[in-house]
Specification:
By secondary structure, this protein is an alpha+beta fold. Helices cover 29% and strands 18% of the residues.
């Protein structure tokens, strides 16, 4: 991405705006320090979403046992209350 000083950007503004409209953004700097980034308004967001919904991506790859709510109940009770 090109960087232009304010003075250069003022003298070439028409060309730079056309460049940005064609999908080539640029940066305007003041005394070498970047100040603004000029991009086309219709340009899609270049950063993809960080988190995509992954709900259901393991569907069909496992089965929940019928006794899921009571699995290992006897063993757990023995650990807490001792063997009877």
């Amino acid at each position: 991405m090109q960087t232009y000083n304010i003075h250069d950007a003022k003298t070439q503004l028409s060309r730079l705006v056309e460049q940005a409209a064609n999908g080539e953004p640029f940066i305007i700097a003041k005394a070498g320090k970047p100040m603004v980034k000029v991009v086309c308004l219709d340009e899609p967001d270049p950063q993809p979403k960080k988190f995509k919904s992954r709900l259901g991506f393991l569907e069909g790859m496992y089965e929940v046992p019928e006794d899921f709510d009571t699995m290992f109940q006897k063993e757990i009770e023995e650990m807490f209350y001792g063997e009877e």
